Amino acid sequence: MVGGFYGRKIGMTQLFSENQVIPVTIIDASSWFVTDVRTKERDGYYAVQLAKVRKRYEGEAFSPAWLKNKKEYFLYVREVPMTSAPEGVEIGTAADFFKLLAAGDIVDVSGTTKGCGFAGVMRKHNFSGGRKSHGDMMGRRPGSIGSLTKSGHVIKGKGLPGHMGVKKRTMQNLEIIKVITESNAIAVKGCVPGKAGSLVFVRKK
Predict the structure, then answer these.
(1) Taking a C-beta distance cutoff of 8 angstroms, is the pair 200, 25 a contact?
(2) 46 and 81 assigned to the same domain
(3) What pLDDT score does 146 carry?
(4) Using one digit for the tens of pLDDT, what is the confidence trace for 98-146?
């Protein structure tokens, strides 16, 4: 069994179960195909290469000609590493590994967080800022960054303004609420990294 699969984050919504509201994230796993199978004898490692078809080719049957020009026919090409040779996985078959999941399963979801541009310390590091009265002039600045060790030295890891977001993050131990087979999607409890439409990786625990 392949240990995970890629999908596209659609967004968040709500599902109702036993008079309870459950916040879920919908992940679309449709239009992915197996484009290569890596073996230790040939490549030195085991892996399954997956690719997502571009929108204009969605709904069409897989063609071996697509493998000759992957940039034209596929939007994403990714590999899922494995510890042993995959069984029952052939090139050209649909990568519908999400169907192996069921409601109640626990997964980890990895993605790239939203980019927020240049941010100050109050937004990026949750600094409190200066006092709001009695003539205080600190405002939203970070304050002193000096050190008593030597002149001009800034301690490594000091919270300062800078680029915020666009970091690889993983949300662990998320529960599968529903597998939507008719739409080739899954509903995961809680939030996952990334903005709507971004690529995420789902790995079963």
Answers:
(1) no
(2) yes
(3) 75
(4) 988 999 999 999 999 999 999 999 999 999 998 888 888 889 999 888 7
Q: Say yes or no to pLDDT of 159 above 70.
A: yes
Q: Are residues 47 and 109 in the same domain?
A: yes
Residues 114 and 179 both lie in one domain: yes
pTM over the 0.90 mark = no
How many domains, the chain? 2
CA distance 123 to 137: 19
Based on the fold, state whether residues 50 and 100 are members of the same structural domain: yes
165 and 100 co-located in one domain: yes
Q: Angle at the Cα of 50 (from 26 to 25), degrees rounded to 5?
A: 10
End-to-end, the C-alpha distance of the chain in Å comes to 13
pLDDT at 1: 57
Q: What pLDDT, in 10s, does the model give residues 102-113?
A: 999 999 999 999
Domain with 78 in it = 4-119+161-204
CA–CA separation, 97 vs 1, rounded Å? 8
pLDDT at 153 over 90: no
CATH number at residue 73: 2.40.30.10
